[in-house]
Amino acid sequence: MMEADRFQNAVIAELAALKYIVEQIGEVAFLAATMRPEHAAVMRQRAQEKLKSETYPGLEAVWSDQLGEQIAASASAILTNIETALAKAYRTSAQARP
C-alpha cells in the first residue's frame, strides 16, 4: 500500500471538508424548502442515473465509465447523508411537539 504524500493528504482533507460543508448546507436547504427525506431519495436516484451516463472526453470509454461510476457513488453518499439528516431532523421535531 502506498503512503499518501503531503499534497495528497491536503487534497483529501479539502475534499472531506467540502463534503461535510455540502452535506450541512444540503440539510439546511432541504429543511428550509420543507423537503422530506423521500425528496432526497428521489434526487439521489436521479443524480446517480445522470452521473453514470455522463461521458468524459479524452478518456478511454472504460475509464470514462469508471469515473462516472465513482462520481455517482460519491454524490449518492452525500445525498444519502442529507437524507439521513433530514429524517433525523423530522423525527426530532415530531418528538419535541407536545
Shape: flat
Main sheet overview:
none
The total beta strand count reads 0
Radius of gyration: 17 Å
Low-confidence stretches at least 5 residues in length (pLDDT < 50)?
none
Description of the structure:
The protein is mostly helical and 98 residues long. The chain has one domain. 82% of the residues lie in helices and 0% in strands. The protein has helices at 6-32, 37-53, 61-96. Helix 1 packs across helix 3. The chain is flat, with a radius of gyration of 17 Å. It starts with 5 loop residues before the first helix and ends with a helix.
Topology:
Layout: H1 6-32, H2 37-53, H3 61-96
Helix pairs in contact: 1-3, 2-3
Feature tags:
3 helices; 98 residues; mainly alpha
Short description:
With 98 residues, this protein is mainly α. It has one domain. It is 82% helix and 0% strand.
